[in-house]
Known about the structure:
Oligomer: heterodimer
Strand content of chain B: 35-45%
Largest sheet of chain B: 4 strands, mixed
Strand order of the largest sheet of chain B: 1-4-5-2
Strand order of the largest sheet of chain A: 1-3-4-2
Distance between the termini of chain A: 63 Å
Largest sheet of chain A: 4 strands, mixed
Structural class of chain B: alpha+beta
Structural class of chain A: alpha+beta
Amino acid sequence: MIELLIFGGLLLLGLVAGTIAENKHLNDLRVREKKVKTLNVVNFGAHEPLPEAREAVLVMGNVVIASDFFRIYLAGLLSILGGNIGVYETLMERGRREAILRLKEQAIALGARQVLNLRLETSNINGEQGKGTVQVEVIAYGTAIR
Amino acid sequence: MILTTLEGVPGRTIVRHYGIVQGSTVRAKNIGKDFLAGLKNIVGGELKGYTELLQEARQEALNRMVKEASQTGANAVVNIRFATSAIAAGAAEIFAYGTAVYVE
């Protein structure tokens, strides 16, 4: 009985705290994305000439983001049915946007006018130990030119 | 040392290639950070301790790559890529690689 109560409590805590944190993060992302809108990011192939620039600097942004207890449980149920798992889609989107934002903020702080060849990478850092947890790292890196 | 993710360095020309250079590091999470992360796993959100840990690790990998490049006599590394792999429970390898070149 007590175990069930703890489990229910954790689910509720995950749902409430997770939703608040998610909405706060999404609002924060919107505000910060507006500030970095002027910086453009271009990816291009090997056959195009490189743009003129005085200086090129490697810039990076990374974030480790975790899902909450409720969403992990829900995803577990959803994965039985298959199909889209929306709760993780939002998690990945948040991570990716945050990583790109950090890269752009770093580039702007350096006085860059453009970021070239942005690359994104995602890795699961759970290992085998992390049963029942979802932690992913998203990194964004590119070349800032000024 | 100029580091880029491009095929070359803007405004410069590559005069010599020195081949692939790489740097890597294997990091484990520490108990203190793991405990806080354990709590964070219930409510979700960013795990700041891990973000910093991996940032430091990536810088270390990059530094090792740069060291290797400077030993060959290069003054730039182009086409840099990063990769991460979890190799055991709680330990991850972070590596950086690129092409060492001499630019003028």
